[in-house]
Amino acid sequence: MSTSVQKPRGRQFFANPGPTNIPDSVLRALDRPSIDFHDPDFVEVYDEAFAGVKRVLQTQHHLFMYNASGHGAWEASLTNLLSPGDTILVLESGYFSEEWANMARAHGLDVRLLGCDWRRGVDLAQVRAALSDDALAVIKAVCVVHNETATGMMLPLDEIRAAIDAAKHPALFLVDTISSLGSLDFRMDEWKIDCVVGGSQKGLMLPTGVSFTGVSQKGLEAHARAKLPRFYFDWTLMAKRPQKSFIGTLPVNMFYGLRESIRLLEEEGLPNVFARHTRLAEATRRAVKAWAGNNGPQLFCTNPTRYSDSVTAIMMPEGYDADALRETARARFNVSLGGGLGVLRGKVFRIGHLGDLNEPMLLGALSAVEMSLRINHVPHGQGGVDAAMEFLAEG
Ligand SMILES: Cc1ncc(COP(=O)(O)O)c(C=O)c1O
Q: Which residues have CB under 6 Å of ligand 1?
């Protein structure tokens, strides 16, 4: 006797903070035969997509791309800019700032972690003090995760830049924009960022597999002095290649997809893309605030000035398992939610509201969460989806 597993029908509603939904036109652009990466037809696509990434980064500076997930671009940022024993200041924000710091330690860097309450985020006065106290400029780089995907918190890069300037500190400013680029306002040149780390699978609405670093002139000068070992990620080697980026074979299909995803972002207009993310994020927060009644799940981020508009992390009431709730949403309703990372595993679940997403897609995910709360007998306030709908209908 065969036992058949019931497969859910319809599309999976993907409310995961990365990878994210891939638009149909991007899927179609990716679906093409191989082409030699030196073929003039491909070079044209490459150049267009490459220039497009620079526009999304809002930079006139240098761009280096890799066949790698975001971790590869993190590694590129550290190994190209620093030397063994160098000190860096990492602003703690959550799991991803910890991971970047761990990678730095593995490369023999001396990491000073500016700690914080993960629910409120770092105190900028402490950033300024840490830099002002460093009269000998021992700190070579300040590393910041713009949008901490694990906690649903965004850090104000303009204010951090102002803190570095106020302390008159020469440190390089390194920023991870993996879950903010193409979703939240990001201005590499205006905020004088020396190295920005980005990836393909979130706001750029592509599969995972390409990551990149934007690098300022000051960054390139630091690179010339930096002595950490590197090869695959070496910017000097890359600059000698015809495509001025990538070591090895280029991911040709990804570039067809990338050109299309940038076309979509620019067709909508970046300010409109950001406004859509803010609207969907606010609707999500309204739903969570309603659920928080009756000792229900709460927004993990308790600092309203730092709410992330691309991902919301939600803390379960004590004694209730976030992963059981996610499993109900997946198995019963075919909705994929993000889980808690590191120490937050089981305590937090995350709703990704970034990339190719609209109101009904978000409301579908919120409805699945609300039903899953009920099925799992998790205490919660009523009317979360109603609160989200009311907000979305207004604007
Ligand atoms: C903010 C942030 N930084 C870094 C990473 C690591 O990127 P990847 O998983 O593509 O290696 C992620 C992944 O989700 C992230 O959200």
A: 18, 69-71, 96, 145, 149, 176, 178-179, 199, 208
In the structure encoding, which two tokens stand for residue 374, read together? 């009920």
For residue 211, the ligand 1 atom closest to its alpha carbon is: 10
pLDDT of amino acid 31: 98
pTM: 0.97
**What CA–CA distance (Å, rounded) separates 225 from 218?**
11
Residues 6+ apart with CB under 8 A from 85: 108, 109, 110
Helices (H), 9-123: 24-30, 40-57, 70-81, 95-106
Taking a C-beta distance cutoff of 8 angstroms, is the pair 162, 156 a contact?
Answer: no
Question: Tens digits of per-residue pLDDT, 174-226?
Answer: 999 999 999 999 999 999 999 999 999 999 999 999 999 999 999 999 999 99
Amino acid identity of residue 254, one-letter, is: M
Distance from Cα 326 to the centre of ligand 1, integer Å: 21
Q: How far is the CA of 394 from the centre of ligand 1 (A)?
A: 34
